[in-house]
Amino acid sequence: MGKTLFEKIWDKHVVRTIEDGPDVLYIDKHFIHEVTSPQAFAGLAKRGLALFRPDRTIATADHNVPTKDQHLPIKDRLSRLQVDQLIENCKNFGVELYGLGHPFQGIVHVIGPELGITQPGMTIVCGDSHTSTHGAFGSIAFGIGTSEVEMVFASQCLLQNRPKLMRINIEGSLNKGVVSKDIILYIISKISASGGTGYFIEFAGSAIRSLSMESRMTICNMSIEMGARGGMIAPDETTFNYIKGRHFAPSGEEWERKTSQWKQLFSDEDAQFDKEIAINAENIEPMITYGTNPGLGIAINALIPSIESITEEGERKNIIKALEYMGLQAGKPLKGMPVQNVFIGSCTNSRIEDLRLVASVVKGRKKSENVKVMIVPGSQQVAAQAKEEGLNRIFEEAGFEVRQAGCSACLGMNEDKIPSGEYCISTSNRNFEGRQGAGARTLLASPLTAAAAAITGVVSDVRELMEQ
Amino acid sequence: MEPIKIIHSTFVPLAMENIDTDQIIPARFLKATTKEGFGKNLFRDWRYENGEESRPVKEFVLNQRVYQGKILVAGKNFGCGSSREHAAWAIHDYGFTVVVSSFFADIFKNNALNNGVLPVQVSESFLQELFKQHPDASLTVNLEDQSITIDNTGQKEVFQINNYKKTCLLNGYDDIDFLLSIKEDIEQYEQQQY
Ligand code: SF4
């Protein structure tokens, strides 16, 4: 019987199998950041151990860093402590750090791919759930907890149970105004925020093949929001072209050798999945969420579902609670509703293509007076490129606030927060209660939909702006 | 890690579904660099009005003195959201050794097991039975035979846990101890593959 893409990579990385227990899985790349690493370093020191493979470990500071005046010392004492601790730990344990002030600094899931560190066929982990992003390259990439970070530090291995496998086939061509964020929000709205639990997901089909690498990353990034362990896409020419020439990409003979290996990374015709789902791309419209988990999403012109239409009692209670928090009404449209904030950023949508999408809507226009718009590039390299391409000028002329690289208002750990009770159209990945600041109300959407709201000041269908 | 064998305790019921890690421990408390002290911020935003410790939310179960114990019983899909292990630390630091739900998010389940917290997955009907119990009802969780029993009614259910994890918890050792013991295998693997 043939093998799935997942199985091909997993099997190659099994050091040993424990009977009636997990596999010992070898890890090729380990990304770390300031928030989930300090306790792991402390644990390692406490056991009197060195870091087993520092050359497979890459660090950056992203979650906590300010996105303004990054050249100045960090004002928040605890954030500063955490970032300083990372610098200290990396020095003591011999880890390469792309910290503040380094041209490679940025959100961990943005820099891995853009530096060519992320490659097909690898096993990649990081103490952050959106590590699934790297799966877009045809690698097995997933988030881990701090104890597991310590395990990888100590042994470059993890004890892992083999997950179940799901394939989601998305066929057909995308409608106008629909981008990869809409695809993934659509899928999550169909299978729910827990519909992927226990599974590792392969995304396949003509609609996926037609996407750029950055768009594929957005899809894999949010596979975690349906509860999945991770998501992945088989590598192809698009993947190879993206990697070629990047800072840490293989070159010369090594490139030839690697690409011929990478070309073997696909699910065989007769490979078996535990579950398969088919999605018709033509049914997807620009999406927006109305609730407090990413599964509560609707097409931009649709109505928030009526409470009576939800048959399952637990789910009904959840939605009532979510709507109360969001200050929204069942059965009513979202379109036309005023918003006070727009946040464009996060590891879901802060890459150069995302900024180009935003610029395509915003060019020559001004933002609405009623909204505050924050645009936060995912990395120093994205920021530099945006500047070079003249995108920054478009944003500034529109009245957007362009910040420096970091996680920012995606999780509101630094000072970038949404005020309590206000609405924010956000290109990030989570709309949980208080995620963007206590009391903040998050509506997840694509960069295009976010750009449209920035211009109109209300929830808008970007297609109407594209026609003008 | 403390070994876990039999836990006999009253429990704290939290009859809500999809409790995510941002509620278990809000992001603003993730700035610590040690594992201790998270318990006092467990469910912080549900526990206090405006986050002020002087203004506990009376209706919230952790603030109701009648509910005590080492076992937390929560609705379906507990621990969804981010991979932050701080959620497991907070639960452990608060004093819970067992969390019972009808469904756990994957990463949370792993994190709990790695920190001496036993996730016990029960059927939805058993869970609803638990929510109906009187505040002083106690439970017995027996890891050895993988069972959970409502003491006064005798209702019992068996739960799943993989053998490897079970042995770890029963003996109080962790994955790192194991991985260090097979270092030679790991080095050999590296030589073959790379
Ligand atoms: S941008 Fe948001 S989701 Fe991504 S790594 Fe940072 S905090 Fe996590």
Automatic annotation (TrEMBL), chain A:
Keyword 4Fe-4S: yes
Gene Ontology MF term list: 3-isopropylmalate dehydratase activity; 4 iron, 4 sulfur cluster binding; metal ion binding
Aconitase/3-isopropylmalate dehydratase large subunit alpha/beta/alpha domain residues: 7-457
InterPro entries recorded: 3-IsopropMal_deHydase_lsu, Acnase/IPM_dHydase_lsu_aba_1/3, Acoase/IPM_deHydtase_lsu_aba, Aconitase_4Fe-4S_BS, Aconitase_4Fe-4S_dom, IPM_dehydratase_rel_enz, IPMI_cat
Gene3D superfamilies assigned to the protein according to its UniProt record, in alphabetical order: Aconitase, domain 3
NCBIfam families, A to Z: leuC (TIGR00170), PRK05478.1 (NF004016), PRK12466.1 (NF009116)
PANTHER family recorded: 3-ISOPROPYLMALATE DEHYDRATASE (PTHR43822:SF9), HOMOACONITASE, MITOCHONDRIAL-RELATED (PTHR43822)
Name assigned to this protein: 3-isopropylmalate dehydratase large subunit
Species the sequence originates in: Flavisolibacter ginsengisoli DSM 18119
TrEMBL record, chain B:
Record's protein name: 3-isopropylmalate dehydratase small subunit
SUPFAM superfamilies: LeuD/IlvD-like
Entry coiled-coil feature ranges: none
Family: Belongs to the LeuD family. LeuD type 1 subfamily.
GO cellular component terms attached to this protein's record: 3-isopropylmalate dehydratase complex
Pathways per UniProt: Amino-acid biosynthesis; L-leucine biosynthesis; L-leucine from 3-methyl-2-oxobutanoate: step 2/4
Catalytic reaction(s) noted: (2R,3S)-3-isopropylmalate = (2S)-2-isopropylmalate
Main function: Catalyzes the isomerization between 2-isopropylmalate and 3-isopropylmalate, via the formation of 2-isopropylmaleate.
Documented EC number(s): 4.2.1.33
UniProt cross-references to PANTHER family, sorted A to Z: 3-ISOPROPYLMALATE DEHYDRATASE SMALL SUBUNIT, 3-ISOPROPYLMALATE DEHYDRATASE SMALL SUBUNIT 2-RELATED-RELATED
Domain Aconitase A/isopropylmalate dehydratase small subunit swivel, first and last residues per copy: 10-124
Keywords (A to Z) from UniProt: Amino-acid biosynthesis, Branched-chain amino acid biosynthesis, Leucine biosynthesis, Lyase
Subunit annotation: Heterodimer of LeuC and LeuD.
GO molecular function terms listed in the Swiss-Prot or TrEMBL record: 3-isopropylmalate dehydratase activity
GO biological process, one term: L-leucine biosynthetic process
Top-level enzyme category: lyase
UniProt xrefs under InterPro entries: 3-IsopropMal_deHydase_ssu, Aconitase/3IPM_dehydase_swvl, AconitaseA/IPMdHydase_ssu_swvl, IPMI_Swivel, LeuD
